[in-house]
Design brief:
Distance between the termini: 42 Å
Number of helices: 12
Number of domains: 2
Number of strands: 10
Strand order of the largest sheet: 3-2-1-4-7-6-8-5
Structural class: alpha/beta
CATH superfamily of the largest domain: Spore Coat Polysaccharide Biosynthesis Protein SpsA, Chain A
């Protein structure tokens, strides 16, 4: 009886969150339809800002995707190098020289780290808006026009675009892209009714002064500027934060289990420093239900195998709750292929998340691209 009450209580809390996400997803789709039926994009004053560290292999494809954009308004492009190695820097300079685009290359004169690189570059820019990109993405479709349209239609101060992960043929890569789909669905759905908890610096836009205003939020972390920024900005009710899912970029999903886990730990570890209590509650709610499922399953297997069937029922119920949301978002963003093998992915997800939470809680100095971030 006690086990049933525990699982049912966790499920009810999770179902409540799912209903909130369903409401947000409905608003997101409606807002997107309204913008689609609106006028074509007007020009605004912006710069594309790309901070990179040893990303020379990605820069050429990013530049080609920018060249292919249909937006004909004027804008500037700034690439800020964050203390890359000489070999990488030479390749980046060669790629920029070959591009027909007019690009400023700046060198971060502050301490190494993405936040410092962005701060240095932003202090040198004069444009009203910054369209921030990661070096390892490609702009999809009419990204710039769609983002400009969304900003103009809503007089937005900060806009969250869509990031799609492109998996390889490996299962772990497909699972990573599937898991990222759920993150994008949650983040954009909550942001659609004014409760943003996450953003992705690979595809976002903001008035330049906003970033500088909140630059010290989460300062102890060398990265995470995107989620810290949107949560801090959300506390100012005078700022207009909007979603722009029609503006999408594509990046490659992690191709190995080690790469996938390291990336997700790097993202998840920062949640303890989030300035938003709502964001912390959402993260805890999701983590709690998944941990409960895994812990009760193992305890049942060891102490009372008869309870395994009961726990299995709640695994299935969670998958049933998640599926309509993920299917609706996948169709909306044209990522239905990521739902292939949903049953297996849904079964593995609680184990993956529980394992990640345990690793996050283990005190350890962690590195990303050879740099310590915690």
């Amino acid at each position: 009886m006690g086990l049933s009450i525990l699982l049912l209580s966790a499920l009810v809390a999770y179902l409540f969150l799912a209903l909130i996400l369903a409401r947000g997803l409905s608003l997101l789709r409606r807002q997107s339809t309204d913008e689609k039926n609106g006028q074509s994009a007007e020009e605004i004053d912006f710069t594309l800002l790309i901070a990179h560290y040893n990303d020379s292999s990605f820069i050429p494809q990013l530049l080609r995707s920018i060249e292919a954009q249909d937006y004909r308004g004027k804008y500037s492009i700034c690439v800020v190098d964050d203390h890359s190695s000489p070999a990488h820097l030479k390749l980046v300079e060669e790629a920029l020289a070959l591009s027909p685009l007019s690009i400023q290359l700046r060198f971060n004169e502050l301490a190494a780290g993405k936040k410092n690189a962005l701060e240095y570059a932003l202090g040198k820019l004069n444009e009203a808006y910054v369209f921030q990109l990661d070096a390892d993405v490609c702009l999809e479709g009419n990204y710039l026009s769609e983002l400009v349209k969304s900003i103009k239609a809503n007089d937005a101060d900060l806009a969250l675009a869509l990031v799609k992960m492109r998996p390889s043929k490996k299962f772990v890569s497909h699972f990573a892209a599937f898991e990222f789909l759920s993150l994008q669905m949650s983040g954009l759905s909550l942001a659609s009714f004014g409760r943003p908890i996450m953003a992705n610096g690979a595809a976002m836009a903001y008035r330049s002064g906003i970033w500088l205003r909140y630059k010290n939020v989460g300062r102890s972390w060398s990265s995470g500027d995107d989620s810290f920024l949107v949560q801090a900005a959300a506390s100012d009710k005078s700022l207009r934060i909007v979603c722009a899912p029609a503006a999408a970029v594509v990046t490659d999903a992690p191709n190995s289990l080690a790469e996938f886990i390291k990336q997700r730990i790097r993202w998840g570890a920062k949640s303890a420093a989030y300035p938003s209590h709502f964001a912390k509650r959402v993260a805890l709610s999701v983590a709690f239900f998944n941990l409960i499922l895994v812990i009760t399953l193992f305890c049942s297997a060891v102490f009372n195998p008869a309870d395994i069937a009961l726990v299995a029922v709640f695994f299935v119920l969670k998958a049933i709750i998640d599926y309509p949301l993920l299917r609706a978002f996948a169709r909306f963003t044209k990522q239905e292929s990521l739902l292939k093998g949903y049953g297996l992915s849904a079964l593995l997800y609680p184990f993956y998340l529980s394992f990640s939470v345990i690793l996050i809680l283990i005190p350890k100095k962690r590195k990303w691209k050879g740099r310590q971030y915690s």
